[in-house]
Design brief:
Length: 52
């Protein structure tokens, strides 16, 4: 594992993404779009949608 924790961060992000998609599907949504080009980071996504 790299000293900066990059690999651990990617693994944690993948686990979180999977849990989030499962929760959305459990709520009844069948299709989850991959996202937009403007959503480079989580902070950018929140900003685009007016949460910041």
């Amino acid at each position: 594992m790299p000293a900066d924790g990059t690999e651990a961060w990617r693994e944690a992000a993948a686990i979180f993404r999977g849990a989030l998609i499962s929760a959305i599907r459990a709520a009844g949504y069948r299709s989850i779009p991959e996202g937009r080009l403007g959503h480079v980071t989580a902070t950018a996504a929140l900003d685009v949608h007016g949460f910041l």
